[in-house]
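Project standup — Tuesday

K.O.: blocked on the structure for the chain from last sprint. Re-posting the sequence here as requested.
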Amino acid sequence: MKNHIENKIPEIDATTTDTLGKSSLHPIYVSLGNIPTWRRNKEDAKQLLGYLPILSAKNEKEKKSSEFKELARETFHNSIKFLLDPLFQGDSVDFNIYDKDIWFFPRISTIICDWPEACTFSLTYKSANSNYPCHFCLVQREDLIDIKKEVILRNHVNMKEYFDSNTSNLAGLERVNNYFWSIPNLNIYAATVPDRMHHLDLGLFKYQIEFTMELLKKKKSLNKVNERIANIPRHSQLKVFKKGIQLSRLTTSEYRDMMKIMVFVVDDLQIENLSEVYVKWNEMYLLSRSEKFKESDLENFQKAINDWGDLFIKLFQNISNSHLKFPKLHSWIYHIVDTIREYGAINGYTTETYESLHKTYVKIPYRLSNKKEVEKQIMENIRRRAIVSRNRVGKTKTPMAFVYTAKLFDFDLSESMIEQNKIDPNLDKKMIKGFEKFIDCLKIYSSVTLKNGAILRTKNDFYHRPWFSNIAVNMNEEELSEYLSDKGICYAQTLLITEIRLPNKSPMHLALVQWYDFIEETPFVYGCPLLRLVEVYNFIEIEAIEDTIHVVPHFDKNNEYFVISLPKSVQRKIFENKRGKQDHIKTSTGHFLPTKLQPTPNN
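H.V.: unblocked you, prediction finished:
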């Protein structure tokens, strides 16, 4: 008989139920902590526990009163107690797995939430303007980004001392008993871990974009940057920002798209360190997405955080009204590495999955209800869908061959052309007949779907903009000596997509491409290949195309382009060719973000 500790991870995030934002629900989910991260981040690995009550005030005055705020926090912790107490009733849970009795001992390991919810769990003041705004430690607001003495970390012992001595305000603590003080082996102030999506994508990076726009306004360069953004070529994995930066409309995925292009957008604007702060951000962000950290990795990560933080503060401190006294910035610089040491990689505590769960468990069921006894109707809807999904038979997908669109051109050999060439002694009737038969076999298309699902396009007007796909081509070993390649991968732009069908023969799938070549003086900038289009054209087999890639112009330069995104298939190819070989040319990151990092093989 084996014993196991079963780690439970509650996740919580309030969300609106309607498009107007007039109604909201507060779902709480739970998942297992001791299963692989990739599995835990799947939607079906989460379990909805219920909906926390949301108190309504009679008016704005009551809502802002200290009595109402205290009641709201008491209600929250009483609700959490009601939901979590059953986990600790009894000593353990006995499961029979593969004819073996296994005892599980449940415990709360971490709580995943945004900063306001973290303050509600820890019962610290939510306001960033409070004297002690960090729920991790007792640092004063004035010292948030410049700690001058050793930090005192919060725990249930020292916080309870403040509470019992009626001096809670000296620690930025609410006058409410914290339910989590009674749970053994849990420090609620450290266990409310930073969520990367809210902390970075919608937090620090959003600040960086906002401050960049303010800086550009002062330098009268904002219009130029918006023009550059609008001129970024199309790519299937990138949002098109036709009107430049519109912060009020950006989603999480769009902020991530901004990370991919901002280095090139602000390049060479004569603003010291502006492009460098985005390079440092991308280096830090990529490291934050690592699956595992050794101690040396954590040291490198802390250095990357410090390098970015120093530049961020130097560039934007005077632009910020609060002089960057942000709790999120403080906790990221001073606490995130210790959090990883204690609770593992950040990938294990992200709310990205829960945002999609809000659609499943809140928004869609709410719209199907008649808006009366909403929570009861939502739960019934969820139960019905769970029963249906258990009985649903999954369909297997059959791999598809190349799928072409409608023909782009219809060819015929016109009489006028024949008349023009009648006197040409080199063109006889057999040759004309040969042309006719060849044209019958030749089809030219505007797009084709590759076997991996990527769409290859050659269209002059795709929603009012041209789209000629850029591609990564896997070169044969005998061809490599003729080209300067990126670990066996060459880059090209697709001009035509053709299919040739002959009777009783397998069709030939060909693409006419124009090749890119490396700029020899500086083959890599920001860790990305720097290329130019050359007057070299070839037909290549579409089967040789690894995938589509994203190429953006080097603004204000003639015929210079960056490769800023590489699909996973191309990354693997580069990494496989890199193993065991030393090359003097630095390769691109292969992580869809421009940085100065060297690639490392995926494990």
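K.O.: great, moving the ticket to review. The longest strand covers residues 528-541. Residues 38 and 342 are 19 Å apart (CA to CA).
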